[in-house]
Batch of 3 targets.
Target 1
Amino acid sequence: MPVSDRARLYWRRTRSMTLWLLLLWFTVTFSAIFFARQLSVYTFLGWPISFFMAAQGSILIFVGIIAFYGWRMQRLDDAYNNNDES
Amino acid sequence: MTKAKTFFQRLCRYYLLYTVGFVLFLFGVAILEHEGFPRVWIGYVFMFSTIVVYATIGVISRTSDVLEYYVAGRRVPAFFNGMATAADWISAASFISLAGGLYLWGFDGLAYIMGWTGGFVLVALLIAPYLRKFGQYTIPDYLAARYTGQYSTNVVRVIAVIATIIVSFTYVVAQIYGVGLITSRFTGVDFSVGIFLGLASILVCSFLGGMRAVTWTQVAQYIILIIAYMIPVVWLSMKHTNMPVPPIAYGSAIAQLTEREKVLIDDPKEKEVRAIFRQRAYDLDDRLASLPESWENGRAEIQHNLEALKLGNAALQDIKQTGRELAAYPRDADEAERVWKEERALNLELAKPPTRHTEPFPGDSEEASNIKRNNFLALVFCLMLGTAALPHVLVRYYTTPSVKEARHSVAWTLFFIMALYITIPALAVLVKYDIYSSLVGSNFSQLPEWVSYWANIDKLHPLVSINDVNRDGIVQLAEIVMDVDIVVLATPEIAGLPYVISGLIAAGGLAAALSTADGLLLTISNALSHDIYYKTVDPEASTQKRVTVSKLLLLMVALVAAYVASMKPGDILSLVGAAFSLAASALFPALALGVFWKRANQQGAIAGMLVGFSVCAYYMIHTLPAFGGSAAGQWFNIAPISAGVFGVPAGFCAIIMVSLLTRAPDQRTEDLLKHLRSP
């Protein structure tokens, strides 16, 4: 594959991953807030679910998103660089 | 590779030693306290010893190399950069006030927790890796290089510099104000003396070593602030739940708190106190209606009382009390109107039954509740996008050795911030449970010691006040008035820990304020020296001269900021939240579209930054009472702090429309983007 094509592929993959993760980020944030009143009826280990999500659940998911992104991007970088040498 | 590894191991060893040393120091002071060391001296010991530590790190890391001064030599490992960024990020407000905010606002306060953490997802996905790939020195650098074209690159640069300075300056004033508040509360020194003490330590650090010194100091500050926060909260958590991990443990405390709230909402004694407050508000209504006669009558009455007391040889205390009342009485009818209206609002607030802590968006009607929900969403939106556009946080990602490390570094940053941020809601619930169950219902003659201690620290704005409104000798919840800061300040004593832990809290608060102030001052002075002086005024300047100019500017900015803070500007403090909206509106669209939309060009970016900033600023001026606006000017009932909800879309629209209407960016931009978008 020519270099420019592979660069384009790399960028396309990066972009689609960014998009999916942003979508996840948005869904978590928005639904935890927008449906907070409906969710507050249910409890999770003592916490009403909406309170748990706003106080810690969403933050854990945010850390997860960033860690996953770092890990996947590193693999993508490695794949690209390996191809480069071969 | 191995070189980087040994560097990392050496850092780990140093900071481990440092942490052990700090814990030993803590034990040492605890023993001193046991031996009868006075309270004020413990405050002094913590203030001065930590400041000396930071200054020492600053002196050791002194440098006049450009790369070291601006970006710490680009060799800060992801783990440590994460820690430093966390300290950079955690401000005095997060450390001291946020727990109290959550105590008072319940669920609605969690907007800050969500907003201030979720923003890092945007930093990680949209900005940090590309900034590092670009690899220059400041945020305006990046924008200027990305948006080249018809005009001189300096146009974009200067607009970005102005936005950076406005945002960072309001923020740094608040941090220095926090430094003054913490030092004066814990050591009793004058507020302005406290400010200049803190300033001295900030300067020794950043003046000598720039980013290099600031980075290593921030790591040290993070360690202190997290230890300081955790010890009392873990203790309190053990006391109430027998579990040492507060974020896991407080689920059971929430259930108990909810039970207690139910009791207090319907308690007849509580209702009695609330009725008294309501009556007071009605009385004020009457007085407001009959101004200005009521003002004259009121003053005459106090004067009459005073004379009667004097003639009747009453106790000196009563005479003094009435004298103070007279002195505090409004000077004229206009002032009376203003003061009484405030008092009326306060009394009406106190007359309300307590809201339930976990209830989302409590409101009298569906509509009121929806307004609260929309404001929560809007605030989270602004805080997240603001976080992703705060220059002092973003520049930290220039300092990692590679793009890969920059990505990991954001994960570490949020991890270290999370350690504090998931503990804050736990602390609020634990303290609330403690107060609801043991302070409420106790006898006025047996108030815990911390109440009288913190009530007397600042006489003008008491941090906590408890008055026996219905004179039954028992504390009712409605009789307790608390400031947001008291929750963190009093936690060690509520948990039953010795005063040494309160001193530790002071050191932690100071670390939080100083670390943020360090980063902000450096960002402002670098924007001035690098972007304005070097890139715009004198591109021929030698590297030596650039660093010298930078240091001089740092000194000047620091002095101006300290001067502004020492005037206690209440208005500026209320604007700190607004800094997020301004940063989001002015910088976020240009930063995000820069990488992800090739067609965005210079004209678009200029328009976007100007329009975003203006819309946001206009909305604030239009709705903030401090600027002569009023709540009546609000759109969709959105509070002024969330002005970014309008500014950001306006900024995006402006960039997109103007870019599409003008010529596509040139080959230079194309090449830069190709570089940024490749691994």
Target 2
Amino acid sequence: MMASAVIVRHRSWPPIPAFLLAMAVGGCDGIQSALRPAGPQAARIAALWWVMLGVGAAVLAAVVATMLWAVLRPARSRAQGARPDGERWLLLAVGAASGLTVVVLFGLLMVSAVTGRALSISVPDPLTIEVVGHQWWWEVRYPDPDGAVVSANEVHVPVGYPVRLRLGSADVIHSLWVPSLHGKTDQIPGHWNTTWLLADRPGEFRGQCAEFCGIQHAHMALTVSAEPPETFAAWRQAQRAPAPAPTDPSSQRGMEVFLGSSCAGCHTIRGTPALGRLGPDLTHLASRRRIAAGVLPNDSDHLAAWIRDPEQWKPGTRMPASRLGPEDLQALVTYLATLR
Amino acid sequence: MSVAFPPAARIAPGRGDDREADLLARTWASPPGIRGWFTTVHHRTIGLRYIATALVFFTAGGVEALLMRLQLARPENALLGPQAYNRLFTLHGNTMMFLFAVPIMEGLAIYLVPLMIGTRNVAFPRLNAYGYYAYLIGGLLLYGALPFGGASDVGWFSYVPLATLTYSPGKGVDVWTQMIYFTELSALVVAVELIVTIFKLRAPGMSLDRMPLFVWSMLVMSVMIVFAMPAIIVATTFLPLDRMVETRFFDVAAGADPLLWQHLFWFFGHPEVYIVFVPALGIVSSIVVAFAGRPIVGYTAMVFAVVATGFLGFGLWVHHMFATGLPQLGMSFFTAASMMIAIPSGIQIFCWIATLWAGRPRLRTPLLFVLGFVSLFVVGGLTGVMLASAPLDLQVHDTFFVVGHFHYTLIGGAVFPLFAAFYYWFPKVTGRRLGEGLGRWNFWLLFIGFNATFFPMHLLGLQGMPRRVYTYSAELGWGSLNLVATGGALLLAAGLLLFLVNVAWSVRRGAIAGDNPWEADTLEWATASPPPAYNLRRIPVVTSRYPLWAANGASGNVEGLRIDRREVLVTTPLDAEPDHRALLPGPSAWPLALGAATGVGFIGAILSPVWALIGAGLAFVALVGWFWPRPEPGRDRREAVP
């Protein structure tokens, strides 16, 4: 299906005024900023924002200046305002200002509508990715003829190719939002919403759930990795494979711990009997950058700490604390680290 | 009409003999002591109760806000856990919307409208008393349930399915729905009350086109309440039924659509914002006219703008739902509707500026707050236009940008006018002025603190900070702006404290105000400050929009109204021609009894549906008592009108 995808070109907007204003308002950087677009959709919306900001600043300045002048100007010039013909003049001024308001609003409405149209992408037979929101993590599925590739909290996309996202929810309403790429789209139980993403440069773009979804709403993040198409294809190929069988005794022990404890009830590791559906699929866990929906870096120490007591990092999380002894835990973490 | 009117003639309080005043006072006074406390139906007493209660809840909501700001001051702060934070923002939203903003506007209307239209009480005094009890019980329920695990943590919007029993077990959401019932009841009661009072009890001659803009705005607010509340009544009937008796209105597995809740909630929720804002338009108009010392420029335009705001307020609820995947066509319609509401707001602002331009503005504290209001509200309105744009909304919806935006519209658009109102009408209520020096400090602390708190939120939203998050990681770079916002919140709190100090000091030691300290134009200033129990000694005949300014503003008084019983003059709805005399009911404890009965029903229903029936039975008893025929007060008195 990749073959039929097309590279969509778009006009890039001159960044200079945007940059100047960004400096003026105190820096709109940050790794999750809507004003550092990495794709044509976010770039369009950012451009719309700068237009709106410019118009808004002008209106505010005009209104406040007129008002302050009306109140503070010297009494001498004030006397003129009370001329017998003053009322008519004032009504005309009010009418003119109101008319101008209508014109400005109509202009903004048009700019907004044009931007809205420019956001839609539609290509035949696109790369489709399903993202399902859970309390409090994301299930990411790449439909595939040989059975879906399932991952969690990381969406990989090829640079320059439009990607269709099908968005669903397993429990309450969530909202997928990766500001550098596009605005948010809600994930509503009983609905499948569709949105499109197009990254025009490689990079890792952080996103976060935008709709309040319960106690750990704050810790429901995900990353979109935009990669050159070859890298993406290689990654996808690697993800198709089931988990490698453990080779050393420690990992072997770890796998037994995994299968023998409650872990297997909630998590899937393809290639093993563990087929739980409640938690993230761990088949290629070690290839992910972070665990627990963006909360912790994915290394042995944090993995062990997370398994030992998830509540400590994410109070209210659905994952229960484990009762494993130190050796079992160590073996489990060693095993999980082999799931590349 | 073109020249500024000097405050030429005032309506004299009346030169009748003291016997007449004594009799009037006896007729309209509430019973003394503790009995009066529970039986009063006096509109000013009840209005003040609304205002005082609302201010208590405002303080509580402010403390909650401060706690949240302290939690967000630093990344990964551990002051509050996620559950405490989620409960706080839920409580804060509910308190500010349901227990502060709407009730305080209603209280102001209940206090001022009868005075302004020249009558002695509202149209249904006992219903009025009941409305307050319903409000009080709702507020006490929400806060009283806190120690017993009755704290909701799903936000004031209570989206399903998060608010269903599956995802929110416990009683928190149930307490929330029942609290909504009380505030709805109260708001509906007040709305009906005000609509009838305004249409039927205006002083003769005060035709609709001579009605003060304040009264117009309260009328529009009331009509909006009548149309907005049914939507949330439906929503908050479905939800507790789902939770308590297992209906499946919001059960996705049974084919229900969670979007139904959002449509119902925002069909109420967006007009709600204007229900809070429209009265503020009336406050500001009153103050601009009084302090410019001249009639408003464009009275008719102002009236049309207020009415248009009321209508358009219902046309934009869907802009809360642009991210839900609705069809593009619908979104375009609601984008246009949402942007359009900026037009009437613009017209009002232009008219005020023109009025100030043509008048001789006196820059006292109330006007200072009005100037602050205009600047803040323009910011809120402009960010509102941005949110109305569907594409931009996709980025900023549900972020701190929205939090910044609606605090500019609600605090800038309603709380600043409220402070202007406090400074403006305090002399009417207490007979003394609020301290002017403290008032200026009060203003500047609030203004600077407010901007420092809420302006950075717009930037945070653009930098990707979602709302309703209890913490954030340092690498996101939101730390410094959040710290600024928290500092601003502390300034804001200091400003509010200073206001309380000013009130406490001025109630006893403020300068004596006199009847009409601002040389204002409307009828509430035609009587003593504070006004006697009967409001105005004589009901004036109004012949001008600005009765206290025009030499011929009020030509004579109404004759023939009995003063030995609670009689008011009823006039025709449009032209205010005298129609007939009506007898208003006096003090009664039955409204309180009905309040208690409703309380038993609604609060008991949280535990078991049976209590709803028991409450209904008790309410029936209370209503029988309420309407039991008894001798007409004043009938057997010998003291007739001289």
Target 3
Amino acid sequence: MPVIKWLRRNLVVIAGLATLAYLILPNVVVMVFSFNKPNGRFNYSWTRFSTDAWKDPCGVADMCGSLSLSLQIALWATIGSTVLGTMIAFALVRYRFRARGAINSLIFLPMAMPEVVMAASLLTLFLNMGARLGFWTILIAHIMFCLSFVVTAVKARVMSMDPRLEEAARDLYAGPVQTFVRVTLPIASPGIAAGALLAFALSFDDFIITNFNAGSTVTFPMFVWGSAQRGTPVQINVIGTAMFIIAVVVVTAGQFIANRRKNSAKA
Amino acid sequence: MSAVVEAPAELPARKASTRKRLVPYWLLLPGILWLIVFFALPMVYQASTSVQTGSLEKGFQVTWHFQTYWDAFKEYCPQFVRSLLYAGTATLLCLLLGYPLAYLIAFKAGRYRNLVLVLVIAPFFTSFLIRTLAWKTILADGGPVVHALSTLHVLDVTSWLGWTEGHRVLATPMAVVCGLTYNFLPFMILPLYTSLERIDSRLHEAAGDLYATPATTFRKVTFPLSMPGVVSGTLLTFIPASGDYVNAELLGSTDQKMVGNVIQSQFLRVLDYPTAAALSFILMAIVLIMVTVYIRRSGTEDLV
């Protein structure tokens, strides 16, 4: 039985591709249903082909407002958590000091905590302080939970850096600032970029922590959540498809740049 | 490091080295302060909330009422068990599904490696709520997936096991576990891939030279060397899955409520803060205990 033999030899590849299909299937469904003309409030079953939603992506009340709010929050959360996280990562890798263990666990714990626990405890803090829930409380929460992920991403890169490169720069009479800007930062930048990209994705997509700490402010994930009860407009699938395409382009471009760097370093 | 090098005992140099010794603390200060104020301090507030009694109208007072913990645990025991069961099943499925794909990317993809990696990472950036809602379409009653499963008599078996009900998948445990598995799969694949990629391919050749079959090579060489990835992957899927309430809400029915759903509704709808706080502390304790035991057992403590 050549078929069975072939199947056995390629079992890993087949299983892997099946998993890949499982991962991509919902994205395909989102893409297909962005061209649907639904009958009723929910866009869950296929009716007929239409490009209406693509021609008028912001045709749903409040959706694009929530989208731009989410983008703003994600941008500021990325900047905040990347700056703070990179500083922590450098301190942890490059210096020996007391309380390292405690600081390491303080950074690890937010990643080892179910999101709902962090969300609820932050809400108790804000309620006790009498803070008004909205943009600022969301931003504070997002910087908090992105921070650990940025530290981990940057730390991995800085740890694999050769400290002799910086020593060489100093031997060649580069000042501390010059060494940092011209040598340290360029080498660490892939790690920082990975951390920033992760922070952006985590913040833009976060629902659980935002749901607790947003008050009456509506971010894009909260809009989607609400629409699951009220009715899902086709435009949600348009945005979902656009996000997928942008992500593919950005990630591919990132890998392309990384590859070219690697090749030019080899040459 | 350089502080050690510049050790001459002259006074100005020592001043400079004192300043240098403070550098790590200045680097750490803002971020650590952020984590203390917005992560650690809220836990303290929540601990105090969990031992308060009172009502929303009259206000809450700390009365060291530990009974709340016991009452909350007793009342929501089924939801706790269900959360751990669903999260555990989803984690296992993620490992079974994710391992071949991670292996494929690391060793078999060749020049398609980057393409496959992009396809694994890209869904990350598409709102997971939109993708979860897409499962409603995929698993819809009478849809192609349900039709195929029932023709193959899979649904008969799963219904007998209590995973599905009759000829539907939506609003059953199977749908919730499917959603959880799907949503946390990338968190399993990426650490697995990173640890598999680090394995020196010469080890595989060596195993082959020593007459090991592919299966033995996998069991004795590849899998043990990928353990760091397995451990961090399972943690990254199990922890968030145990506290998730989105999948149970969107894909399940009231019979599939997880503990996250209870915490959410106690906090945001019922406004019974002490019970909600006690519930989230119990969840946190269970997860932390399981994680600690698991890390000890698998012997990769240096991982974290």
